[in-house]
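Re: weekly structure request thread

Next one in the queue (102 aa):
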Amino acid sequence: MSNELSAELSDSVVHTAKMLEDRDSAHDIPHLGIDYTVTESGTVTEVEMKISGRIGTHYVQLLSGTVTGFSHGERYRTHFNSNVLKEYGLRKARRMEERIDS
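Done, posted below.
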């Protein structure tokens, strides 16, 4: 992979992280889907929102506060700080755990 593409991927992921930190609500983020990481006991350990980035699809881990982007076999990951998105992730996790329990 070229250094130029690596730089574009990292710029894209950092841009996404900054956009997420500026959000007042998680409900207006256009996403491609939400996936859950669940233990055998039914505990949700991560809520992941897939969104379109400038380059490829970005995976936003709501509980751990990270954004990961992939392109041509390369990966770039960075952190973001958003209590709004963490709370949204926690609510989604609780709802999923309730569905698992019922």
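The chain has one domain: 3-101. The two ends are 47 Å apart (CA to CA).
Next request, please.
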